[in-house]
Automatic annotation (TrEMBL):
<feature type="binding site">
    <location>
        <position position="122"/>
    </location>
    <ligand>
        <name>Zn(2+)</name>
    </ligand>
</feature>
<dbReference type="InterPro" id="IPR014710">
    <property type="entry name" value="RmlC-like_jellyroll"/>
</dbReference>
<keyword id="KW-0413">Isomerase</keyword>
<dbReference type="InterPro" id="IPR046457">
    <property type="entry name" value="PMI_typeI_cat"/>
</dbReference>
<dbReference type="InterPro" id="IPR011051">
    <property type="entry name" value="RmlC_Cupin_sf"/>
</dbReference>
<feature type="binding site">
    <location>
        <position position="85"/>
    </location>
    <ligand>
        <name>Zn(2+)</name>
    </ligand>
</feature>
<feature type="binding site">
    <location>
        <position position="87"/>
    </location>
    <ligand>
        <name>Zn(2+)</name>
    </ligand>
</feature>
<dbReference type="GO" id="GO:0004476">
    <property type="term" value="F:mannose-6-phosphate isomerase activity"/>
</dbReference>
<protein>
    <recommendedName>
        <fullName>mannose-6-phosphate isomerase</fullName>
        <ecNumber>5.3.1.8</ecNumber>
    </recommendedName>
</protein>
<comment type="similarity">
    <text>Belongs to the mannose-6-phosphate isomerase type 1 family.</text>
</comment>
<dbReference type="GO" id="GO:0005975">
    <property type="term" value="P:carbohydrate metabolic process"/>
</dbReference>
<dbReference type="InterPro" id="IPR018050">
    <property type="entry name" value="Pmannose_isomerase-type1_CS"/>
</dbReference>
<feature type="binding site">
    <location>
        <position position="251"/>
    </location>
    <ligand>
        <name>Zn(2+)</name>
    </ligand>
</feature>
<dbReference type="GO" id="GO:0005829">
    <property type="term" value="C:cytosol"/>
</dbReference>
<keyword id="KW-0862">Zinc</keyword>
<keyword id="KW-0479">Metal-binding</keyword>
<feature type="domain" description="Phosphomannose isomerase type I catalytic">
    <location>
        <begin position="3"/>
        <end position="138"/>
    </location>
</feature>
Amino acid sequence: MALSNVPRDYDWGSATLLPELQGRAPSGAPEAEVWFGDHPGSPAMTSDGRPLNVWLEDEAAGFGIPPRLPYLLKLLAAGSSLSIQSHPSRAEAAAGFAREEAAGIDRDAADRTYRDENHKPELIVAVSDTFTALAGLRDLAATRRLLGTLGAAGAAVAARLPQEDEDPGAQGDAMRETIAWLLSGDAGAEIDAIVAAGEAAESDEFAAELALLRTLGKAYPDDPGVVIALLMNLIVLTRGEGLFVPAGVLHAYQAGLGVEIMAASDNVLRGGLTPKHINVGELVRLLDPAPGLPPVLRPSPQDGAAAFEVDVPDFALTHAIVPAGRPVSVAVGGPAIVLGTAGAVTVRGAETGESITLEPGEAVFVTPDEHAVRLDGHGEAFVAEPGAEA
């Protein structure tokens, strides 16, 4: 069953990446995300004219599956920075949702933090040649070297960082305090000084980070996220590489086209580079303050299919590279979505034999009774499905 949707026009979206993928003229507006899923905020449309969430409500029982997908699959096209953010664990989300329900905060209120009871781990895989992201907190010694390129302005922030020889608990407390201070509204002079110093700062080691500082300083003047970004790892994925972001890890995608899959949730704890509400206390309380580089996932293809290993029950994602004349078979253990990203790939159900050919940016919903899909043609596709324990 074919799926389609229209791009969402968030300000950070690229005007060209999605049109180039789909071989069409740009609309002139930013095109940030295309959602392929049943999320009520932007459900995909099925070929029979029903939104996918309505189709599942009507038909899921016949396939012995729940009427909601546990995952949301997207094409994401970043032309500028998304907000710095993290997400709660499932237990934290349930507790926070209950608190805000008891407090009578409307679920659509701008200052609402928990809009559901679910966690939101996510995986982004580069589809463009490169995909740039901020993710996780950088090694403290390296961050001190970076801040050292910014003179007195950098030293003022460095003085608030944890010491490398402190125990992890004390380090974590100090990092939370530093981020809370930056977001408190009391660090305006320091933020302005960092942005000003970045205009002239030079470093072979941190040339990319300083270039990003200048970009963010122009786009988000006076925003504390400009300085928080300096505390984070700058990661550049190459095509086919993935980045998994678990609960509590700060991240902000910067530039590029990717396939993103996440648990079905709207729970976002923002930490800068945004005009939206920032719940500082909740963000720092649930923050994972441990420094370190998040692992970049580089799965090895087996018979044309490369599965990204992530330890969550909500979703699984497989990247299929289909050479001409060499079909690829991918087993599916639940309701699946296949998304084409290159060439022309024909998706054929293993049980019914029904088939649909996907051009880049097109998707098809596969019911679980197919058990597997056969991919023919010449191109690439991603297969999303629930995780093994969902």
